[in-house]
Known about the structure:
By secondary structure, the chain is an alpha/beta fold. The protein has helices at residues 13-24, 36-40, 47-55, 59-64, 66-70, 76-80, 87-99, 112-119, 121-131, 134-140, 144-152, 168-174, 192-196, 199-211, 226-230, 234-253, 263-276, 280-289, 296-305, 315-318, 329-334, 338-346, 372-381, 383-389, 400-409, 417-422, and strands spanning 185-188, 215-218, 258-260, 293-295, 322-326, 350-353, 394-397. Among the domains are: 13-99, no CATH class; 311-422. Bound molecules: iron/sulfur cluster (2 copies). One iron/sulfur cluster binds at residues 31-37, 47-48, 51, 80-81, 83, 85, 87.
Amino acid sequence: MTVPTTAIPRPGSEQLQSRVRDLSGQNVFACYQCGRCTATCPFSLNPQQVLRRVQLGQVAEAAELETTWRCASCFSCVVACPKGVDPPRVMQALRIMATSGELGRKHSKTHRLRSRLIAMNHRTAKIGSALAPASNWALSLPGAAVVSELVLGIHRSRRMPEFARTSFAAWFSLHAPAGDGHRGPVLLFLDTYMDYNFPAIGMAATELLERAGFAVSLAGNVCCGRPMISKGFLAEAAEQARLNVERLAGAATENVPIVGCEPSCLLTFHREYPSLVGTEELRKAAEALAPKVVLIDAFLDSLLQAGELELAFDRAKSGGRPVILHGHCHQKVFSSPAAGLRLLREAGFDADVTNASCCGMAGSFGYEKENYELSEKAIERGVLPALREWPEAEVVVMGVSCRQQIDHFTDRRPKHLVEALRDVLMDVP
Ligand code: SF4
Ligand code: SF4
């Protein structure tokens, strides 16, 4: 569809443009229509067109575009934009305006129950874990997937991750440290999936950090708020942001590293918190906190680069085994998969990294019935060709959504980086 360039803005369009600017924090006029965002989008959407409509004052029309509602927030376009424009923020602003009725009539392009469940995943996962294995059994019943599609709009071929009967936090409270902590304290960020679905990732991270000489404690954080942001629950996300900034600011001031395993959660501290927390004082605290909140691969790699990584890997276990690493989109926004690649090679693997963009899952996007086809096309375009080039390689990915996607569309069973590294540590005598 060609965007008209001579259209006359509607009355009130300047106010609506200002509203988009206030909600998104973006100057849409910085966009010079180069088209790189659209060329980059793994879902074949057209963020350039959305920006153009808003530039023209056609805010309601921008809110009607398919891209505005189907954007998966993978942020590939953010990384690609040479002018520092952030199209997903603009589209989020448009969705907020459309659903609140600011653009004339209320849109109903969202699945309200599904959005609420996804936004509040930290609560549903806690209940699911407390009720496991009954909750897992219920989800595996014949017909459960069809009911889930009809009631929640979750595609029937998708399977939700199983709930762990023993949460990671419960395991952590009873575990015996694997080291003497002589290098000082580290706080481990507890994400929802690590806690209630994949505690093995938390166990592996704990062992790596403790064997590297650190005294590990849980950070005492609440959910980062990313699922709420992705579904437009900004007030709830702001409350999570304020709680996390208040709880973790002290550690940041004392220079205690806060280390996490899930890129999306940590990106929220870097990208969203300063503008979300609401007061000048908290904004400054959020900005001071963000650089102290790091992914575990970046943390361990910084030690490796300084020649201070006290981890002994058993090359008889890794022994040149092929590993292919895929970088999570959110990781690429504020960090880099290169850190993980260096660690895998240091551990003795024959490791390489895919040059692929989004896997197609993008949080809950690929679970949603109406997005399933786009999600499948995205993985076919990017990740699957890379994996086919490495048919024997173990697949390593830090993001939970990428692992779910690869698990769903292939017979490969990806590991988190911390599991791959922990598995080849030298045995303790
Ligand atoms: S990449 Fe940036 S400048 Fe280019 S069209 Fe997209 S938003 Fe505009
Ligand atoms: S954030 Fe990702 S899905 Fe959304 S428009 Fe940008 S590239 Fe496409």
